[in-house]
User: Which sequence fits this backbone?
């Protein structure tokens, strides 16, 4: 009996030795939780600057007049160095907590850094043990320091404001798409694709250094920034820019399904029409030894927002659909011609030819010489609740 007891105790002690414990735990109050990262590179000196926007856990938790009251929701730390590795070490000259970037939601890159190339930046993120490559990357069209030190209305944490705006834009517009994360950039760049990333314009006014001042200001356009325009990337380098009107055709021709209201001139009248992509089909055939890429778009239309014009008969509906078919075909084809002249394969013609004609000996040359046709079929499904806009008596 004593032998069994001793054997049991020995086995129990052996299993106890294998149990893990929190011997290397880090308390929350020892971590600096990064919500947003900004990167800038001086093209002349090569000096790299990283901005870490860190959440202040004391903000909003203390009553006015007590320690922690009236504090900023985030603090932005700016650190420079000759390399990203040097910055990782020297950040602790001013940061009293362990840097923790796995919590970050947004990566911002200055326009001048993007024009030099973002390969080193994405490599730096990928190589870090707790780095996040599943966060959106945006380009700053203006001083990055100003954006990193700007409070945003409604959302206390700027990274939350940007993240929420991106999600709303994806659902309610054709101004940005889903594939804008760092890992998407890496995947597309390694395939030699050309992509577009959203941009943030500089702040409209000098940023306030006090979050309370921003909260007390009713004008949300002041001390705020706006997402607008798109940065064109090829081989990890920014090579151009698209405006908002061009972004609509870029995302539509790449199959994004957000709803977007656009104003068209139809038969001399301005008509606001909401577009939504229902179906897109792309195929390739040969014509006189030249590859022809045919893009077919089926669009759902709504004139709910068209207070300027309400179709009152089936004939007017069909005429509106026919006119919009032609206008959208012409404008989207003009967009493709513009990208072709600049050498931007934004419609991924080369990738399509590689999939549908894998035995073609000169894919790159074929993509440059391919003829592209765009066919649009629209269908008006929703109108407003009024039969005719008010016109007055005068």
Assistant:
């Amino acid at each position: 009996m004593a032998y069994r007891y001793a054997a049991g105790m020995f086995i129990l002690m052996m299993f106890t030795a294998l149990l893990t414990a929190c011997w290397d735990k880090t308390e929350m109050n020892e971590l600096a939780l990064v919500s947003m990262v900004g990167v800038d590179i001086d093209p002349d000196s090569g000096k790299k600057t990283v901005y870490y926007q860190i959440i202040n856990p004391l903000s909003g938790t203390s009553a006015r007049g007590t320690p922690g009251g009236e504090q900023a929701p985030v603090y932005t730390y700016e650190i420079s160095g000759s390399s990203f590795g040097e910055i990782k070490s020297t950040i602790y000259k001013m940061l009293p907590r362990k840097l923790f970037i796995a919590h970050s939601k947004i990566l911002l890159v200055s326009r001048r850094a993007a024009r030099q190339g973002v390969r080193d930046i994405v490599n730096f993120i990928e190589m870090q043990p707790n780095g996040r490559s599943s966060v959106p990357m945006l380009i700053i069209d203006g001083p990055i320091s100003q954006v990193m030190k700007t409070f945003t209305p409604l959302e206390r944490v700027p990274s939350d404001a940007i993240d929420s705006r991106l999600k709303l834009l994806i659902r309610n517009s054709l101004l940005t798409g889903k594939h804008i994360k760092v890992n998407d950039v890496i995947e597309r760049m390694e395939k030699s694709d050309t992509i577009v990333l959203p941009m943030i314009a500089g702040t409209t006014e000098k940023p306030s250094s006090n979050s309370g001042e921003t909260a007390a200001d009713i004008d949300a356009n002041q001390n705020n920034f706006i997402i607008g325009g798109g940065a064109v990337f090829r081989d990890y380098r920014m090579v151009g820019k698209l405006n908002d009107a061009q972004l609509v055709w870029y995302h539509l021709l790449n199959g994004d399904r957000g709803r977007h209201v656009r104003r068209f001139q139809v038969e001399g009248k301005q008509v606001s029409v909401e577009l939504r992509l229902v179906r897109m089909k792309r195929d390739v055939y040969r014509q006189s030894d030249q590859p022809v890429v045919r893009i077919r778009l089926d669009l759902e239309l709504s004139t709910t927002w068209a207070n300027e014009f309400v179709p009152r008969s089936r004939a007017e509906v069909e005429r509106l659909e026919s006119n919009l078919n032609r206008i959208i075909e012409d404008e989207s084809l003009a967009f493709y011609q513009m990208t072709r002249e600049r050498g931007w394969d934004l419609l991924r013609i080369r990738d399509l030819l590689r999939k549908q004609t894998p035995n073609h000996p000169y894919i790159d040359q074929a993509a440059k010489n391919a003829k592209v046709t765009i066919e649009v079929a629209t269908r008006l499904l929703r109108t407003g609740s009024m039969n005719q806009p008010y016109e007055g008596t005068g």
Q: What stands out?
A: Confidence is low (pLDDT under 50) at residues 61-68. The first helix runs from residue 2 to 18. The longest strand covers residues 269-287.
